């Protein structure tokens, strides 16, 4: 590695000397030597010292192997998918351990998944947003259940969110605290 780096330094010094001399043929030799040294240095660096990406890829492979070993030891039986919950638009599935060490494997695992589109039972017509309340800095709206929706859904739902601070934005622009310059 030290030899390659010394060659790289030597080639740069030679290149500068030839360019200062002003010979056209020498420039071609100097350009060629710079490229070859760069290739040699690049090859030496990539072969001797693994890059950050290569190290990360190696670690990911190790983790996947470890997970696979753990997964191979734990075998689960799949339960049926639950009915779609109209309020959350989610369904669940339970996996029960059928083979494996109880100390290393979870006895049961539950996964959640969104229901397919169009199967959501609760569909609402969006209401209009209220004005911003001063103490809480929030606005709200009331949504009404659309006709033909699942009757088990709530007839109305209340949605609340934080207000955008327009006055604070104006102060920032006047004070120019955002770091931007004013166009003139």
From TrEMBL:
It is found in: Secreted. InterPro entries: PTN/MK_C_dom (IPR020090), PTN/MK_C_dom_sf (IPR038130), PTN/MK_diS_sf (IPR020091). It holds the Pfam family PTN_MK_C. Keywords: Disulfide bond, Secreted, Signal. GO terms for molecular function: growth factor activity; heparin binding. Residues 128-140 have a biased composition (Polar residues). It comes from Cloeon dipterum. Residues 51-63 have a biased composition (Basic and acidic residues). Residues 42-69, 120-184 are annotated as: Disordered. Belongs to the pleiotrophin family. This is Pleiotrophin/Midkine C-terminal domain-containing protein. GO terms for biological process: mesoderm morphogenesis.
